[in-house]
Design brief:
Low-confidence stretches: 132-144, 150-157, 360-374
Shape: elongated
Helix content: 25-40%
Distance between the termini: 15 Å
Strand content: 5-15%
Oligomer: single chain
Largest sheet: 5 strands, mixed
Number of helices: 19
Strand order of the largest sheet: 4-6-5-8-7
Structural class: alpha/beta
Length: 552
């Protein structure tokens, strides 16, 4: 009641402050705009007229019929000056005055050549400067765009070839002058990487993606849940909104390159870039809760003597999500994994061995096993996860797939992996689970009888049921499994994992038909991002409650 009173008092103070200082609302800004609407339209129309009366701003001699929409300010260039001004800005959008209005043109059409291998400068082994005119034999830009990855399209003796480059502002075609140093022909993909361009293939790259567009796609996918198809369609419309179908389709290349890019970024961020001899182990490419007790991370070496056991007791919440389904693959043996078990999803091999042994050990479940074989075309009917109960951070290497419903053998594997995640055993572990009353009965026996399940020595499991789900249980469950009566459980509802499933439900339809490895990587990325946002926001949240409780 005291906290509610303080919150109401704070809201009243904020409202009074806004009124006292005449802070404008959204509708106030719209009313301010209405008298200026005609003037704004006039400015927009003025921007469409010929810049600088058709004179080049740089040389003052040539016809300045070209303008750049990406550069700051309004300047007019002749063809030679625009190339000098954009030698290191190959992804700017140009327009050419045709006598009546500005129409889209490209740097390539003005004779631009992108040099690779020497920091954007021409290779010193070039006998003479390459002439882009041989590319006139390729025909229109649509013909160049139509080339597929790996095609051999008119490489000239001067080391110039055409490259389709996907950037965050559109899809571009450029004439590229490769390095002519001895042996350089085998390292074209590395030259692209050094120019911050990710090649779509290694042998004869004909398409590349800028690092910027890959980062943009990552944030779009994580924050807006944008699919690769929607993201690439956006880029095609940026390039040509009237005829987006004329822009080359690099959707499949984007899917492939983005997976590789995210794998490299994760390994770099988690410290596996410099130590090339050490490979990431289970859960090593994952973030965890910064506030939950973790020996060796946020606890002193003498924590066993400095703190009472209840202060460092781990509190986990366990739940399943049946929206995150996965269809069977046609050729599963063809799948290539880049980070199996390195994030939040468990390693596939040991988990499948556990499922196989759990099915075959009990003859009473033959009917269930037969049903599993005859079920629909789903490889997984959902996922089960373990997260910290207080802050809602997914536990690394503890998310499992369901084969048919949410069964004990699935959740046992997730819980055991979560309990073993900390480098040192802590002791008591609170497990909050919707059906903890049933799950906990033979849990210890299942662990003892399984070759794949184990718990740290001395671990004590305290089962509980979340406050929302407890209302659907029998009356006998209330005094035994209620968090209200659980000694040293703290003030938690045990339902925080339910709130984490909402964002995952938006990506589940997209991930449903992916390959097994790709789906696990996508789920890992979104769980990593969820934990990241918890990590960067936890300080702000703590500061808010401190100010609320102590300064109001």
């Amino acid at each position: 009641m005291k906290r509610k009173t303080k919150v109401s008092s704070l809201n009243f103070k904020v409202s009074s402050f806004l009124k006292k200082n005449h802070v404008q609302a959204q509708n106030d800004f719209l009313r301010d705009y209405l008298p200026w609407r005609t003037e704004y339209l006039s400015v927009l129309l003025d921007l469409e007229q010929l810049v600088n009366n058709g004179k080049c701003n740089d040389c003052g001699e040539g016809e300045g019929l070209i303008r750049c929409l990406s550069c700051s300010g309004t300047r007019a260039w002749c063809p030679s000056c625009v190339l000098k001004a954009h030698q290191h800005n190959p992804f700017h959008n140009l327009q050419l005055w045709n006598g009546r209005f500005y129409e889209t043109t490209t740097l390539q059409a003005q004779g631009y050549i992108m040099y690779l291998g020497h920091g954007g400068e021409p290779c010193p082994n070039l006998s003479h400067q390459p002439d882009p005119s041989p590319w006139e034999d390729l025909g229109s830009m649509e013909d160049v765009f139509a080339q597929e990855e790996g095609d051999t399209i008119n490489d000239t003796q001067l080391g110039v070839s055409n490259l389709v480059i996907v950037h965050s502002t559109g899809v571009y075609s450029h004439s590229v002058s490769w390095c002519q140093c001895p042996g350089a022909e085998k390292a074209h993909h590395l030259d692209l990487m050094k120019a911050r361009l990710f090649p779509a293939s290694l042998t004869r790259p004909r398409s590349a993606f800028t690092f910027d567009v890959l980062d943009n796609f990552l944030i779009d996918a994580l924050e807006c849940k944008t699919s690769a198809m929607s993201f690439y369609q956006k880029l095609r419309r940026f390039t040509n909104n009237a005829f987006p179908d004329k822009i080359p389709d690099r959707y499949r290349e984007l899917m492939r390159v983005s997976r590789i890019w995210w794998d490299l970024v994760n390994r770099k961020r988690f410290g596996f870039g410099h130590d090339t001899e050490r490979s990431p182990g289970p859960g090593d490419l994952a973030l965890y809760c910064p506030a939950c007790p973790q020996p060796g991370i946020n606890l002193p070496t003498s924590w066993r003597y400095d703190y009472e056991e209840w202060l460092v007791m781990r509190r986990y919440v366990v739940d399943g999500n049946f929206t995150a389904q996965h269809m069977k693959m046609k050729i599963p043996e063809d799948d290539v994994s880049l980070a199996d078990g390195k994030g939040y999803m468990v390693t596939e091999g040991p988990y499948q061995a556990h499922i196989h042994d759990s099915k075959s050990t009990c003859s009473n479940h033959r009917a269930v096993n037969a049903t599993n074989i005859q079920r629909s075309n789903l490889r997984a009917t959902g996922v089960g996860a373990t997260a910290c109960a207080r802050h809602g951070c997914f536990v690394p290497h503890a998310v499992v797939d369901f084969q048919k419903g949410e069964r004990h053998m699935n959740m046992d594997y997730s819980i055991c992996n979560a309990v073993k995640y900390t480098p040192e055993p802590i002791g008591s572990t609170l497990i909050i689970y919707d059906v903890a009353c049933q799950w906990s009965i033979h849990f210890a026996e299942r662990v003892d009888q399984s070759y794949h399940l184990s718990l740290p020595e001395g671990t004590k499991i305290l089962p509980a049921v979340g406050k929302f789900h407890l209302s659907a249980h029998k009356l006998q469950c209330f005094p035994r499994f209620s968090l209200n009566f659980m000694t040293r459980a703290g003030h938690i509802d045990g339902e925080i994992l339910e709130t984490l499933w909402a964002p995952f439900n938006k990506i589940s339809p997209t991930a449903r038909s992916m390959s097994l490895a790709h789906r696990k990587e996508v789920l890992d990325d979104h769980m990593r991002d969820s934990n990241w946002k918890k990590l960067v926001g936890i300080g702000k949240s703590n500061l808010f409650w401190f100010l609320l409780l102590h300064l109001t």
